[in-house]
C-alpha cells in the first residue's frame, strides 16, 4: 500500500490518530466536574456555571513554555517529565495573583509524530494538571517536517483561572515590614538552561557523566521536574494574610521579586537564610560563572516567594511545613532603596 501524498511529505495522519488514542486516558484523569465532552473535538468546553458562586469573578490567564529544557529531554530520550514542567510554568505564574487554575491547553510541535513519545509528553502534562487541580481541556499536536528535525519537538501551553476581584494579590497590597517567605525549589526548574547547556559544552561534560557533588548523572539532575506550588499557594492565601507572591523564573530572585514591589519600597533578601542545592554551585564552578550572573539567571533554590503580613509569617511557615513544602523567612520589605537587594553570604557546607 503506497503512502498518501501527505505522508510522503512527512505528515502521518494515522500516527496522529494513534497519539490521540494513547493520550485519552491521561487527559481523562485530569477532568474536573465542569468539563463537558471528551477529547477529539475542535474545542474544549468548561461549564462556567460555577462562577455564579463568586461575588465578582475575574478570569486570569497565563501562557508559557519550558524553553531549552526540552533539549535535555530529547538528548536523554526521556519525555514523561517535561509536561510537568510546562504545567508548573503556567499555573505557578497564574496563582501568584491568587487565581485558582481551572484548565490547561497545550501545544506540541514536532518534526515527526511518534505516538508513544507524544503520549509520554501528554502524560506528564496530565500529571502536572492533577498536581495543580486543573483540567487538561484540550490541545494541539502539529507535525512540522522540514522545520524541525524528526526527533525534535517543542511544548507550550496556556492556563485560565479565576479569582475574586477583591482578593487579587499584588504590589498594591504590599507594605513596609512585610515578611518574605521563600519556598524551596526542586532544582533548576525550567529557566537558565541555555546557560547550563553552554557551561556543559564548554567544560566537555556529557549528560550521562556522574557528578560527585550531585551524586547522579548531570542529565538526571537537569530533568528534575519543576515544583508545582499552585495548591500550596492557594491554601496559604486562604489561611493567612498574603499580600503578594512572586514566581521565581527567568531573571532570578531579585528581578522577579521587584515585579510585586510598589514604587517607593524595596526588599532585602538574606542569603544567609538558605543554602542553594549543589547544582547551582556546580554550574558556577564548571563554567566559571560569577555569582552575579548566576543570581540573575537561575532561581538559586527559591522557586516562589510569598509576601505576607509580619504576624502571618509563623503561621505561613507552619502551614507550608504541613504541606511538605520547604519554606523559611528570607527577608523583608523596607523603605530603603527601590528594588530587591541580596545581602550576606550563603552558609558553607
From TrEMBL:
Swiss-Prot/TrEMBL catalytic activity: 2-formamido-N(1)-(5-O-phospho-beta-D-ribosyl)acetamidine + ATP = 5-amino-1-(5-phospho-beta-D-ribosyl)imidazole + ADP + phosphate + H(+)
Pathway annotation: Purine metabolism; IMP biosynthesis via de novo pathway; 5-amino-1-(5-phospho-D-ribosyl)imidazole from N(2)-formyl-N(1)-(5-phospho-D-ribosyl)glycinamide: step 2/2
Keyword match NAD: no
GO molecular function per UniProt: ATP binding; phosphoribosylamine-glycine ligase activity; phosphoribosylformylglycinamidine cyclo-ligase activity
Family matches, as NCBIfam families: purM (TIGR00878)
Stored Pfam families: AIRS, AIRS_C
Keywords: ATP-binding, Cytoplasm, Ligase, Nucleotide-binding, Purine biosynthesis
Domain of life: Bacteria
Highest classification ranks of the organism: Bacteria, Bacillati, Actinomycetota, Actinomycetes, Propionibacteriales
Protein's name according to its UniProt entry: Phosphoribosylformylglycinamidine cyclo-ligase
Domain named PurM-like C-terminal: residues: 175-339
Broad class of enzyme this protein falls into: ligase
Amino acid at each position: 500500500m503506497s503512502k498518501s501524498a501527505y505522508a510522503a511529505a512527512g505528515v502521518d495522519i494515522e500516527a496522529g490518530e494513534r497519539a490521540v488514542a494513547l493520550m485519552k486516558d491521561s487527559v481523562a484523569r485530569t477532568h474536573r466536574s465542569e468539563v463537558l465532552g471528551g477529547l477529539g473535538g475542535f474545542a474544549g468546553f468548561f461549564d462556567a456555571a460555577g462562577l455564579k458562586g463568586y461575588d465578582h469573578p475575574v478570569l486570569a490567564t497565563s501562557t508559557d513554555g519550558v524553553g531549552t529544557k526540552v533539549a535535555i529531554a530529547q538528548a536523554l530520550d526521556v519525555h514523561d517529565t517535561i509536561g510537568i514542567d510546562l504545567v508548573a510554568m503556567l499555573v505557578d505564574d497564574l496563582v501568584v495573583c491568587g487565581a485558582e487554575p481551572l484548565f490547561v491547553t497545550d501545544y506540541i510541535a514536532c518534526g515527526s509524530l511518534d505516538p508513544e513519545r507524544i503520549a509520554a509528553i501528554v502524560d506528564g502534562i496530565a500529571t502536572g494538571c492533577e498536581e495543580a487541580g486543573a483540567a487538561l481541556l484540550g490541545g494541539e499536536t502539529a507535525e512540522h517536517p522540514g522545520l524541525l528535525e524528526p526527533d525534535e519537538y517543542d511544548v507550550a501551553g496556556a492556563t485560565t483561572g479565576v479569582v475574586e476581584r477583591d482578593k487579587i494579590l499584588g504590589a498594591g497590597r504590599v507594605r513596609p515590614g512585610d515578611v518574605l517567605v521563600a519556598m524551596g525549589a526542586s532544582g533548576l526548574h525550567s529557566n537558565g538552561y541555555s546557560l547550563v547547556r553552554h557551561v556543559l559544552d564548554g567544560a566537555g561534560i556529557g549528560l550521562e557523566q556522574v557528578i560527585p557533588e550531585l551524586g547522579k548523572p548531570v542529565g538526571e539532575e537537569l530533568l528534575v521536574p519543576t515544583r508545582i506550588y499552585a495548591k500550596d499557594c492557594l491554601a496559604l492565601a486562604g489561611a493567612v494574610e498574603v499580600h503578594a507572591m512572586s514566581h521565581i523564573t527567568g531573571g532570578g530572585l531579585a528581578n522577579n521579586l521587584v515585579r510585586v514591589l510598589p514604587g517607593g519600597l524595596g526588599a532585602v533578601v538574606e542569603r544567609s537564610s538558605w543554602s542553594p542545592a549543589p547544582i547551582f554551585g556546580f554550574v558556577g564552578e564548571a563554567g566559571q560563572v560569577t555569582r552575579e550572573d548566576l543570581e540573575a539567571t537561575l532561581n538559586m533554590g527559591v522557586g516562589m516567594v510569598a509576601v505576607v503580613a509580619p504576624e502571618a509569617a509563623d503561621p505561613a511557615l507552619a502551614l507550608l511545613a504541613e504541606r511538605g513544602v520547604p519554606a523559611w523567612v528570607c527577608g523583608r520589605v523596607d523603605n530603603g532603596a527601590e528594588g530587591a537587594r541580596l545581602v550576606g553570604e550563603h552558609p558553607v557546607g
